[in-house]
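Structure (tokenized):
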């Protein structure tokens, strides 16, 4: 059973490493996005800061500071909420729906004409995905 836990932990580092690699390949800004820092800091609950910083190519001191910040209670959840009158929007001949989770997972859909899709169900599926 110990090997399974170790495999899962290594898999977690690989997933976050993949997120960093995609960001580095496609980045449009110099600063590392908050969701990537949060993902790296969350790994430090199972791995040492030096291990995570080496695996992800991060500065040790910067990661350590982020881990310390994450351990402090915060009221800033970094989320934005926008209320939308869905019946009015869905009645338009063409409209776009774009959602993004704090970890960077995005969903974009372009609707043309009436759609049988329930946007609330799509949002719930996105938030449940991978959890």
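Design, position by position:
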């Amino acid at each position: 059973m110990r090997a399974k836990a170790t495999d899962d932990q290594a898999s977690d580092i690989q997933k976050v490493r993949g997120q960093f690699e995609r960001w580095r390949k496609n980045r449009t800004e110099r600063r590392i996005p908050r969701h990537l820092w949060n993902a790296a800091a969350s790994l430090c609950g199972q791995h040492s800061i030096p291990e995570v910083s080496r695996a992800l190519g991060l500065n040790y001191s910067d990661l350590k500071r982020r881990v310390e910040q994450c351990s402090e209670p915060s009221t800033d959840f970094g989320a934005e909420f926008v209320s939308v009158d869905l019946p009015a929007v869905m009645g338009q001949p063409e409209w776009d729906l774009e959602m993004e989770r704090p970890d960077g997972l995005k969903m974009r859909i372009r609707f043309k004409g009436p759609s049988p899709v329930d946007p609330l169900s799509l949002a719930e599926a996105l938030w449940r995905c991978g959890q």
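Reviewer-requested clarification: Residues 92 and 113 are 7 Å apart (CA to CA). The longest helix spans residues 2-26.
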